[in-house]
Each structure stands twice: as structure tokens, then as C-alpha cells.
Amino acid sequence: MNYTISPDFTPIIDAIETHLVGKRETIALSLATFFAGGHLLLEDIPGVGKTTLAKALSQALGLDFGRIQFTSDMLPSDILGVNYYNQKEGDFVFKKGPIFTSFLLADEINRSMPKTQSALLQAMEEGIITIDQISYTLKKPFFVMATQNPYEEVGTFLLPSSQLDRFMCSFSIGYPDKDAERAILKGGSKEQLVKTQAMLDTKQIESFMQKASSVTLSDTLLDFLQAIIAFTRESGLFEYGLSTRGALALTAMVKSWAMLQGRTYATADDLQMVTGIVCAHRLHFKEGTTTMLRISHEIFSKIHSDT
Amino acid sequence: MKFLNTLQNTKFSSLALLDISYIVVLLPLLLMLKIPMLFFVGVIIAILIFKSTPLKSIGILFIFMLGMLALYLSLYGAFSFRGLSRLKLFLELLVYILIIVVAMQRLTREINFYLLISPFLFLALSLFFYYGMLMLIYIIFELFLLLWMILSHRMGGDIKEGFASSMVMFMYSLPWVVVLFIFFPRISFEHANYGFRGETIQRMGHDGTMYLDSNALLVPSERIVMEVGFEKEIPPAHTLYFRGSILYIDKKDHWEGLAINAKRETKPFYATTGLPIKYQVTLYPTQKKWLYALDMPSKNIKNSILDRDLISTVEKSIKEPLHYSANSSLSAKFYDILDEETFKASSTFESDHNPRTYTKAQKLQKSYPDIEKRAKALKHFFKAQNLTYTLKPDALDINHTTDSFLFDTRRGYCVHFASSFVTMARMAGIPARIVTGYKADFINGLKNYLPVKEKDAHAWAELYINDYWVRFEATATASFVEEDNQEVHSSSFLSKEVNLYLMYVKYQVETWILHYSHIRQLQLLEYAKNNPTFVAIFVMSLITLLLLTFVIISYFKRPYYSSKTLATMQALLKRLKKEKYLREDEETLHQYLIRYAYKHPKKTLIYDIDKLYEHIIYANENSKNKQKELKILIKKFLKE
Predict the structure, then answer these.
(1) ipTM of the complex
(2) What is the pTM of this model?
(3) Right CATH number for A10-196 from 3.40.630.10, 3.40.50.300, 1.10.8.60, 3.30.70.1730?
(4) What is each CA distance from B215 to B207, B209, B253, B335, B606, in whole angstroms?
(5) B573-618, pLDDT tens digit by residue?
(6) Does domain A214-300 have CATH number 3.90.1800.10?
(7) Are residues A269 and B619, on separate chains, in Cβ contact within 8 Å?
(8) A223 to chain B: nearest residue by CA?
(9) B588 and chain A: CB distance < 8 Å anywhere?
(10) How does DSSP classify residue B394?
(11) Residues on chain B touching A265 (C-beta within 8 angstroms)
């Protein structure tokens, strides 16, 4: 472990950890993604705590929680909302969809049709939706945590890379380690409700977001960062390199991760920590399987900091 | 280096690198190109500058036609297939063809293997046209530059990296070059004509025959015939007679040497009396067979024949610069016993050709029975004639040259003096002959270096007196020297002095570097044996050179750190490495230091260092104080 979370955030992580035992790092990275103003894609098998993480996180952050279970017959209006004719008032009234929330869990996003997927993804990018020529602004902050099951292929519509690019980070929760799992097996019951107190208010969240964006990036770090970006584009290992949006996401994540550790500047360690999760869904190796660890290893065994 | 730094961010394309190479290798060749070909090269450069797209095949065809036209015009008149047996013409043709071919390929803006090696072909061809000091320096520069360009090409156009690498390679080779230079003498390629006929460059000056008529018009040429390096200082001015050939036969308007088939005893009589000296001669192509040695040669010059008249000749005429070392005993006379043939040749005269001289000579012979006194009287007679030394003599009566000179015109130069002196000596019963060669001008010399110029060509007389051949400087009998004979000095005294020094330096470099032969090596060894200080200086300079090489190599191979702070950290990092803590591949510096700190809980200072470093590098808190603080912390840590 090469990082120490700032005391500002340790209570939040502690609180969430009671529901997701032994996953401090995952929780911390989710928080960092949130404060960086991005969206998160969780790729994992069912039953490792994706929903639990989402619920606990939203409660701890004091955000109203919305959930959409994606299915193949869903339409964009099921997410965004619909104008219906109110007979009493004799006029069309807009009924807000589940997207009008601060914390949205888009469960199994790859089960819906591309049309529906893209409706959500456009909203994620712009923070605004337009229905019948009327624009509606989404809540702020607006955080989407989408999940997809990478191993199920029947009846799924894989997200194209242009859509994947809209997510700031992607990672998996993974199985808990031995001790954590033992603790879960001992104590918890399946029905245990996730109930965590809100630990931040909107103002605090805003100030943290502000802090994250004002973290200093030194010239040395920017050199390192650019070397990494150049490597993804020029090494020939990947089908295509990191896009500018990807590079921006990497920068935002580095800053946010530095902020989470209570620093006003980012270091090479921060960059090393977040590069894998930012790039995992953006880069594809020409040969072999693409995993977060492999990306991280390929990059950092060739691009060195402090030399 | 600053210049290179500005170039750091600009990557050069391979074509640009190639163009730089072309500029450098073509520069010496441009001096020999004929005007049509120069025009062609100009056209190619203009196209390259103003047209940035590749030329289409029609354009290439046009360039080819233009090139052929330029080639034709350049060689017009000079060219015939028989002419190709002349090396220079053949090479010139090769250069032209190469230029055309390279231009055609270059204009397609595509690089192929042949284009990449073409600069080396140009370099190789230019070696045939130029030799000497300047070219040597230029070639070293060219080789370095080509190496630099190749490395830059291989490094993707990074000329800064390329420069560092080529400099390192160059410096690695330098001490070896110097050592090899000293231990392996140059091999002489004097006759490297590769089966071609040699170029005929005629030099004026000394010739085997001596003309007395208008053929003998003298041109005071400053061209260097030979350069002489003495072991110590230049001998006195009155001894600098370089023996060339001996003339016996008077043919009225000119003098000739003995016929080759003359039956003479071949036993040479070396000079034994006089001051023995040793010297090195660089003789430029004369197209003749004579080697020149100071009066009197005391030893055979290597690879040459020294005949009984102390004349040195080689078998083939000299077409390339020749280097030889010679030994002489400085003396105006040498012992010889005349055989019949020589006696006959040196006593023959036609009394009816010069009747007036004959009567005077007869008188002398009668009044001075002693041969030595008679010779002196002859000299006095010449002095009494009030002769004038001039380079622009009036025409002589060809049928009575001596009479005409001594009694009518009384004006002439060395040829006329020597000719008349010998003729009259023979008439007075003294065997005599003419020696031609060079009388070097002492004023031209510097330290131990003496250049001999064409205008130094000279003729003097040798009289056989009491078993000795004695040199007589006939021109010394001139009563007047015509003022305007003193050549007009167009250049000032200072520039002449500077010029002399330049020639001196050039000569030293050429003898000790370009023509460092086996003999020189032995000489050097001999010198080193007697001079321990020289050996010390030599060893010291070799060590200095090695140090210099080391410094330059380490400068170019110095590790490159992204920041000054990191350079400061190196002391610490080296210590950790020594303690066998190696930084892993994917580890950041922070992780590395923390890992070390975990293993050594007592060394808490490392946390401070890590923190400070992080602040300097990542939090933009780089100040002099912080740097100092870091240095102090590291020092403290190293002491612990």
C-alpha cells in the first residue's frame, strides 16, 4: 500500500467498509472518481457487492439514490422521462425519469439496446437532457455507477469504445480476500440492510470537488504524464492510444486521488495508482487479453518516473 | 553545445541529414567541377529548394537529359576514349555520372540504399583530386560528420544524441590513432596510378641541358621545387649548392651531358673532406631523373645511383613527390682521378668557335704555368671584363657564344658566365665542366627548413685542379648587378614572413605526419634515446591526451537526469544501491525509499528526504533553500 487516505475521508471509507468488507481500495477509488466528477463502470460478476457499494456510497455521501435495471426491451424514455397528457390539466406534463437523481446505479448496462445506452451516456456527458425540444438540467452532482457483466454474452449489447470513453474509470471489485470473506461468512446475513449515515453535505462535496480540481501538477509530473500518453499512442502495443478525453480523465483522476490523500500536489505514485483503472476500458492490446494490471505493467516497466 | 540544444527538439528527416552530408562531401569537388556541371548542380539545388513535391518521371527524364548535356559540355574537347587512360579524366567522368545519378534519385525524394552510400563515394573520389594538409583535416572533419549523420539517421533524426554518440566513438578511437600513427609509418603510394598514365605536370627550373639562346629566358618563378629539412640549422649561405647534372659537351647554343654509352669508369669517388651534414628532402615532381644533393654528396641516396661525378639519379622520372634523406660533406672540391673518357670530355674545345677567347686563354696558359694560379688569373680576367649580371641579356652570337659574351654584350646570367668560364678554362688547359642544379637562397629559410624555388636554378663551373674538382662560382665575377633584376616584391615584408612561417608549419606537418616514414621513425627513436626530456614530454602529452579523451567521453556519456534535484539525490541512491537495495522496474522513487525505510526502521531521515524531494519535484516548491536543505539531509543520512 503506497498511499495514506486523509483523515477527512477515512470515516467515510470506514463506514462503507462495514458493508463491503476488505475493499478499502475499491471504495477509495470510487470516491476519487466521484470527486473527480467522472462516472464509474464496474465490470464484475454478480454477487460481489456492486449494488452494495453503490448504495453505501450514495448514503455515505448523502446523495439521493436512483437505480435502473437495464433490460433488452428498455426505451430511452424509461430512463429520461416522458411527456404525457394530463387530462385534469388538459396539457402535456413531463414526468421525470429515474435519471433525475444525484447518484444513479445503472445496473447491467450492457443488457439494453444501444439506443437506450446512448441516451444515458449522452446525459452523462452533458448533464442535460432534451425531450421534445425542452432541455432539462440534471442534478448536481450527478454520478453514474454503471455495472456490466463481462462474462455473459447472450442478449447483451457490448458498449462500443466511444461510449466506454465516457466513463472516467472502470474496475472490478473482485472476490474478497480470505480473512474478509471469513468475517462475512461469520457475521452477515443476506438480508442485512445497507444503512449508513450521510457524512457529507452538498456544500462539502462541492468544496472537495473544487479542491480536487485545484491540485497542483508539477512540470515533472506533466512530463511523466505526457510520456505515458505518448507511450499508449506510439508503442504499437495498443490498437489505438489514449484519446484526449482519456488524457483529461487521467489528469482529473490523478488530482482527485492526490486530494483524497490530503495533498495539494500530485505525485508519480498517484499517477501509477490511477493509470490502470483509467486506461482499462480505453486501451486494447493488439495481442493477448487486456487487463488493468497488464496495462499498468506494460506502461510503468517502460516509462519511469524520477530518472 | 548551446546550438545543439536548440536543435534538440527538431527531428531531422533522413533526407535533410543526407543533404547535410552532400553539402560537406561535395564542397571540395565543387572546386574541380567544370562550369556546365556547376550549372547543373545549381539547377538541382534550385529544384530541391523551390519544389517540395517529388519529381515525376518526365521531370526525372528531363534532369537526366540536362545532366548528360552538362557532362558533354564539361568534357567537350578533353574527352576521347584514349583519354580515359588518364586517371584524372576517368575519375572526373565518374564524378559527373555519380552527380547525375544521385540528382535523379534525390529528386524522387525517396531514400534507397545507394543514395545512403553515395556520400562515401563522393568522399572517396575527392581523395583522388586533393592531397596535402588541408585535405587531411577536411577528411577527418568529413568522416566525423558522416559518422554523426549516420548515427543521427539510425536514431530517428535526433542529431543531438547522434552528436554525443559519434563524439564518444571518435574520442575512443583518438588515442589509438595517435599510438598507431607513431608505431606504424606511412606506406608510400607514390606510384599509385592504378594502371593509368600519370598526369604530366612540367616544372621549370633545372634541366639536363643548358641553353644559351633565347630558350634560356628565365622566369623568376616562386614555385617550390623541393623542401629541405636540416638536422640542425641551415648551413652557411655560400654552401647551399644543390648538385643536379654535369654538362661536358659544348653544342654552341647549348651544353649537354655525356652520352649514356660513354665508356667511363664507374667507381665513384665520395667526398670525404668537409663538414658532414644530414638532411631530408621533399622533391616535387620534376618529370626528370635527378635527385639533388648538396655539394658534395658523401653517401648514396637510397634507391638511387650516385655516379662518379657525384650526380644522383633514379631509374624512372619523378612523377610524385619524393622524399629522401641525403648525406653531404660541405665542401667546394672533391678528389677524383680522371679516366681517359672524362679527361677528353672535359678538355675538348673548338678554338675556331671563339677565337678571341682562345688567344686570351693561350696567353694565360703561357704566363701561369702553375695550374692553380692560372685558374685564379682566369677569374681575374673575368672580373676585368666588367661583366654585368642581368636576367634580361642581349642575344648572343650563337656561333661564337663565349666571344660574344665576354667581349661584346658583356651581359648575361649564370648560364652565360658558367659556359664562358668553362670554355675559357679548357682553352687555358684546365679540364672543366658545367654543373647545373640549384643554389638555394638562405633568406628563404627558417630555422632548419629551407625551401628551394624554381628561380633558384643555377649553373656553375667545376675545374679540375691538382686531382681535385673545384667549384668556381662564375657569376661572382660579375662587376655589376643590374638593379631591376632584383625581383619586384609585390608582397610586403610582413606577409612574406607570415607566408614563410605557414610554409614552415606545413612542411613540419608534412614531414612528421603525412610522410612519417620508417626512416623518420628510426630518427625519432634515436632522438628519444638521447633526450630523456623529450620522452618525458611525449609520455606526458600522451597521458594528457588520454585524460582529455576520458573527460570528453565522460562528458558525453554523463547520465542524464530529469532534474537537478534528482542529480542531488544520486549520492543517496548510490548508497542504497551499494547496500544492495535495487530499485525495481515499476517502482517510483517514493515507493523505493519507503521500502528501504521499512527495512531500516531506525533510519527515519529517509522519510524527511522523501518528503522534501516530493515537495520540490511535485509541489513546485523548488527553491535554493530547499535544494540546500535536501543536500544537507542527504549528507546527514550518508554520515549515519
Answers:
(1) 0.83
(2) 0.55
(3) 3.40.50.300
(4) 12, 11, 9, 34, 97
(5) 888 888 888 888 888 888 888 888 888 888 888 888 888 888 888 8
(6) no
(7) no
(8) B562
(9) yes
(10) P
(11) 614-615, 618-620
